[in-house]
Amino acid sequence: MSISPTIAYVVVDGPDSEGLERLLRAAGLQPQPFKGGQAFLDAYPKLRPGSLFVDLAKPDMDGLELLRRLRAAGCRWPTVIVTERATTANAADAMREGAFAFLEKPLREMEVLAAARKAQAYLTASPDIMHDEEIAQRIKRLSPRERQVLDGMLQGLRNKQIAARLAIGESNVKSARRALMQRMRAGTAAELILLTLRGGVTIKT
Predict the structure, then answer these.
(1) Residue 3 pLDDT
(2) Per residue in 88-111, pLDDT tens?
């Protein structure tokens, strides 16, 4: 089976699917939509490798369950999870299941294009592309307090819980969190999860 990095399979509902397909075509990809996770799984054995964009909250099968079944079938295609309600917890769950990227709705053109291009590169390169040494260096430059707050965030703790664990004020946690997000160049908690995993951090539960 030959690799065709220009194919992007879309398992996303309604208007979001149409908008996503337009963006993917603009990125030079060939979007191929599927109505649900089961429909994609049924077709999977005969499909050529490509990137996959999946809605986290699908009625017939949620994105995490689809990821689990694909991994069990030996599929390692780069899978981008799309969600309307991103949290640190569901972002961490998605990355543990092997998600390649995690995007929040409403989808932003530049984020979709960046994820699509990285997915294309991943399909034609070594899996080592998942590790980013530049991000690893950002993590090394964090202060001890910023790293403690990062560890708490990766475990899904709220600011108040992190403050209690570290025996500091919640305002101190918020300050460290702002600095941490700036140093890591992350706009959201979900993006922070992806960056830290690319930088080699293991999420402890």
Answers:
(1) 45
(2) 778 778 877 888 888 888 888 777
One-letter-per-residue 3-state SS of 73-141: CCCCCCEEEEECCCCHHHHHHHHHCCCCEEEECCCCHHHHHHHHHHHHHHHCCCHHHHCCHHHHHHHHC
Q: Which domains does the chain have, with CATH numbers?
A: 7-130 (3.40.50.2300), 133-198 (1.10.10.10)
Sign of the CA dihedral running 132, 111, 85, 150:
positive
Q: How many angstroms separate the CA atoms of 23 and 107, rounded? A: 10
Taking the CA atoms of the chain, what radius of gyration do you get in angstroms? 18
Count CB atoms within 10 A of the CB of residue 95.
Answer: 20
Separation between Cα atoms, residue 123 and residue 8, nearest integer Å: 11
Place of tokens 């040494």: 133
Rounded CA gap, 113 and 175, in Å? 32
Do the Cβ atoms of 52 and 62 come closer than 8 Å?
A: no
- Which of 146, 121, 119 is CA-nearest to residue 201? 146
Residue 202: Cβ within 10 Å count: 7
CA dihedral of residues 178, 179, 183, 185 (deg, nearest 10): 10
DSSP-based three-state secondary structure for 53 = strand
- The per-residue pLDDT of the chain, averaged, comes to 84
